[in-house]
Amino acid sequence: MIPALIVFGYLAVIIYVGVFAWRGQHGSRGAALPEEYFLAGRSLGPAVFLLSLFGTNMTAFTILGSAGHAFANGIVTFGLMASSSALVIPLTLFFIGTRLWALGKRHGFITPVQMFRDRWECGHIGTLIFAVQAALLVPYIIIGVMGGGTALRAISGGLVPYWFGGAVVALVVMSYVFFGGMRGTALVNAFQTVLFLSFGAVALVVIGRGLGGFGAAMESLLASPSTAPLLTRERVSPLFFLSYTFIPLSTIAFPHIAIFCLTARRLVHFKRTVLFYPLCILAIWLPCVFLGVAANAMSDTPRIAAKLEARQQLGAAPALMSAEDRAALRRQAAGDDVVPIMLEQFAPVWLAGLLGAGIMAAVMASDSQILALSTMFAEDVFAFYGGTGRFGAGVQVQTGRAFVVVLTLAAYAIALGAPQSIFDLAVQYAFSGYAALSPLLVAALFWRRSTKWGALAVALWVIVAVIYTARVPGALAWLGLMPVVPMTLVSCALMVGVSLLTRAPSPATLARYGW
Amino acid sequence: MARLVWFVLILSLYLLHQDLWLWRQARPLVFGFLPVGLAYHAAYCVAVTALMWMLTRMAWPAELDEPAPHVPSAAAPEAAAAVRRGPPR
Questions:
Q1: ipTM of this model?
Q2: Does the predicted model carry a pTM greater than 0.90?
Q3: Given its phi and psi angles, is residue A514 left (phi above 0), alpha (psi -120 to 50 degrees) or beta?
């Protein structure tokens, strides 16, 4: 229960940090109310910008899921997800994020859809893009609430029930997003990133000592034919590995990341972000992946031995085994809790509490997504269709706040009833969907000949492709590549082909974008 | 020319991510415990940092920080109206 108490203490600190941001919000910086609430007045400094941008991109998968994936699949996890992101994400921030920032500063954009509408001289097509972005974002928010309930239940050893843990997380996130807006969210995310970064190194040292040295653990894995492949990538096809490099393209297309790019006080703040982003990924992912692999050496620990046994049974499973039995074995073999198990075995209580706080931090990454959806609704729907003109900017901000409450409560209600597996799947498709939307940003910023009809074609394609791949197993998995590759390439082709067949925006509009 | 050089550099680093020559081997264990494939990708992250350092030093888009020349939005009334105030009528 002590780790749970540490976690509750952490949640109290988070509320204070987030709500503290509310105190300086009401026009004190001379910025219009919507810009202050939704974009922190475009005034985030370099350290907060880096840490919050990185933190907002980290989820429960970063600490728990990566270790669980590595437990089952080995070192390939790092190359698949971490080092590819270390290259692609900073490059997209460098080339796309900076330009988005400059346009936001120059023209007052608060969301990417505003930029699309201006760039391509469109209205309702922008609304469609908003709808696609929003639909792909919703599963993340629900996963966040679910993860909070699951994490608190696990950390407390079952004393805190799922419904109560989920409610606590929903309430905490809703509070600091409601009051603090972007400034509160950014400060909380920065704090959480510091927590992640601290946890990884400490956990590695403590668990390493407990295992009697990682060298011995690795040698024991190499000595067994069943575990030796975990230390190579022989079980994964190079084409599959290559296609995973398309997934990080989704990051810049996530609306909460694109909106975050608009919050920097100065362009030069991007420098530190792109420079340190790969090192932050290294600092968090390497310990988690390595610990996940090393957990395979803990066959003396009953809970891990049970997972290894279940994995072995799955591997030798007879063809006649029922689907339910396979599903039960998969659940037993799942390794998302190996890091908590290792800490429970080797770490002092305070470190287990720190892990719990780190997990909660990761789980509550949905704060940025909730705020992004609220911002998008307030700007791309409410303001665009006349709400601000009729009721004023103050009402627009209150509408955004009300949306935060409604969205969080709806996510909590769904989280109580629906099975998590659905949303785990939805998140996977969302990654591909956002990656396939990234050509919109590239075309808007770098290709003068792109048109609104090309953008419409991309948006419609993404809707069709996401639904198709969700409903038809193996769909679009051409030549051993993941569906994200053909989805993104078809998006590019549609943007180019349809744009060339349709009328370009006016010379005056193009001149505003430097052409 | 400079753009071509950067393109080749970035593409090369992207291709180096596909370390086929280390695909099936775990040894040597770097520092006595890191499988070589994992150590390679850890070093890869450091190499990416070096690339980003070069980009920020030599290819920083400083022109984005300069105010843009004013272009009257009256010449494109639909575009200006579409951004914040609603769909064109």
A1: 0.88
A2: no
A3: left
